[in-house]
Amino acid sequence: MNISTLDIHRISKQYGDSWYLLDTRLLKQNYAGLLTAFTAIYPKTRLSYSYKTNYMPRICGFLNELGAYAEVVSEMEYRLALQVGVQPERIIFNGPCKTETVLQELLLQGGLVNIDAQYELDMIQRLAARHPDATLRVGLRCNFDIGDGLLSRFGWDVDAPEFVQALNTVRSTSNLKFCGLHCHFSTRTLDTYRVRTERMMELIERHFDTPPEYVSLGGGFFGNMDESLAQQFEVPIPSFSEYAGVIATIFRNKYKGKPWREQPALFLEPGSSLVANVMSYFARVVNIKNIRGKDIATVSGSLFNINPRAKRVNPLMRVVPMPAVPMPVGQVYADLDLGGYTCVESDYLYTHYDGPLNEGDFVVFDNVGSYSLSFKPPFIWPNVPVLEYRDGCLHVVKRQEDLSDIMTTYPFD
Length: 413
Prior knowledge:
By secondary structure, the chain is α/β, with parallel strands linked by helices. It has 13 helices and 18 strands.
């Protein structure tokens, strides 16, 4: 989002030296772009937003209004989905660690649980026995080799007898409704999506006379990103249309000519592809020093505010010069690193910056909507506010955290 120097100056007067800015217009574009790319080829495609990626209520509620399902992996996220207005039957519970209390509540309200392991199936069987008049909707998470050299620890090994046993257990339990198959892998490349889609089709051929209600391929898609960022990745960045061209085409070809009721819904569970580029992070340059010939700036932000996982990629960054009195002499740097406010030596937000920079300037980091809030620890500084321009006004969608937010669970006695 473009924002003027004057606006930054005004915001800093009220909200301090660092904050996030949310752009829900981009969020709407991302949602529509991904969904349209798939439904143009396979109309029975559904999107379920991955809450763990950014569980800010404004984002979750906005996507619910757009029609997204909620994909949750914890009781916290499940209750958040309910609080922002998601109907229970539109909540999909994944993840490797579930409790019987939450499963009972969600399943009895019509929600869907993708079973990850035997202990979950045991819990659900007990629930089914206790509630014989209720129909509980479940699926199985599948684990297989997608050729990326990684061994996933999630789901059922589809080539092991335990998978067939689990499938038979669900089918033989009268009030369990087997709804579909789910998989999710962390590798985002186009070729691995082809493999996982084809493997899911093979599983349906092998184990079903008619297709299940849904097939979920999880998330992990790359989103829209600036070319300067895309060039830093070791693999090509597929577009939404390229993902759809592989995945949705396989579904269309498989179920072409079948009645609508015999076509499984294709579920996708996007997270980063929807929210990665919808937030920007603003931080002021506090100090610039030279240590043994190396120029280093300290800013009022941290790598933890951006994404502590992204250590090999420089984020999108721009410098916004700020007026000062007296006006400093312009300084141009080569190979300057921007460090954060923490006492961690590796806390660098950006390295090898070339260009002008002065103390008091603001640096803006774009493409920080993915995991930047959910991964931010309360280490040294509480988190900063999230702001949004809406209807011509600036709204606070997450307030500045303070001592009480961090220490509320600690007794002072």
